[in-house]
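Quick one - inputs below.
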Amino acid sequence: MEKLSIIKIGGNIIEDETSLNNFLKLFSILEGNKILVHGGGKRATHIASKLGIESKMVNGRRITDAATLEVITMVYGGLVNKNVVAKLQALNIDAIGLTGADINSITSDKRPVKEIDFGFVGDVKKIANHSINKLIQANFTPVFCAITHDGKGQLLNTNADTITSQVAVGMSEIYDTSIYYCFELNGVLQDFNDKESVIQNINSEKYQALLNEGIIADGMIPKLDNCFDALNNGVSKVHIGNTAMLTKENNNFTTITL
Amino acid sequence: MEKLSIIKIGGNIIEDETSLNNFLKLFSILEGNKILVHGGGKRATHIASKLGIESKMVNGRRITDAATLEVITMVYGGLVNKNVVAKLQALNIDAIGLTGADINSITSDKRPVKEIDFGFVGDVKKIANHSINKLIQANFTPVFCAITHDGKGQLLNTNADTITSQVAVGMSEIYDTSIYYCFELNGVLQDFNDKESVIQNINSEKYQALLNEGIIADGMIPKLDNCFDALNNGVSKVHIGNTAMLTKENNNFTTITL
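Output:
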């Protein structure tokens, strides 16, 4: 099986021009088939507030009403995505920017209303892996933003981490697929106060031990659960660390396997 | 040679939900290979003004400063383009939204500063017709917005009519290519006060006569010149009329040939 790398970057990289340019340079020289997934971060909140749209949060999660979805479509799907594509073209990567609506690549269901109505938020249902593969086979590099659609004409806001793992799971039917989650830390840390204390390898057994010891806690638990979910569904490896993990010289990041 | 139709719609259709839905239904049932090109219209001006960005016009043409380019990228590349793609997917058209940066499809040069500095406006230089054809061959339907790039990382605002004719010229190396310019009138009119007085066929000779008689004047002259330019560079036919010209029942529109 040929290899495929799926790299996810978040708001901390997107929002800083220098970080973004540095990352894109690393991404451009990464060998083999690759897909980029980006979040949008605070830029949407910033533009929404300029447009007089209040960002509604419930338990730390954004409620996507119609006006907020418009802003997300503008900022993630337009401003961020197309600038990333243009920058990649300048680095000789034949990038193509996508939402889940494009080539029907990611279909989702609008999240059902229970205690909270999240609004126009989608939970991923189906990845059109063979359609995405047509782009890869044509030597194009897909760049996904965090927007999906319901197949009935409605765009939906969708978590970029979830898009990454679901696209990876879908593509793992065709490729030996690895995920790289780039974030601000060097990896999963043994000691949160020591940024260098990276746990380089985690498997299911080790994960259980780290949970028991309380070393992995709070916000890291859903992140790691999401990683194991991807691994249990066909993804080969998940890497977590800062963008330098894309360079061959650096091996101080976390690799997660089953 | 296989046939390819390139359909352009402007602000009057984009801005009205009902018109847009009606048009997209017609577009979806149009037989054969097809490409859609859309303008953005007043929505960008409206959002720019909400964001406190003044729209600067010189001789009726918009000056695209950095802030305006951001709005155009958000509105044309994000909001309008992605909603059109999602709507087409609901009509079973496997659409893919593109700027000229995506798959390096349309490269342009930033317009040189002479009497007027138009800002981030691009004049089309090169159409990557074989890359665009890879999408068509994969059964995807390209949907272009009016944004190109310079290949060095800079997005550029570009006239949608020009994009249409230049893409058509590029694709005419591979396909028997026709253009459909949809606008608010039924076609080129013999008498501007009689909306039914459509001139159904115009060729070079007839065009010259219409110019001499003063029947084609003002804003129609650059439009028609643009059509003949496309025809002189390989495009087979150019049709001008309202969206109903896409239906087989209607033949009351203008067809332009050499």
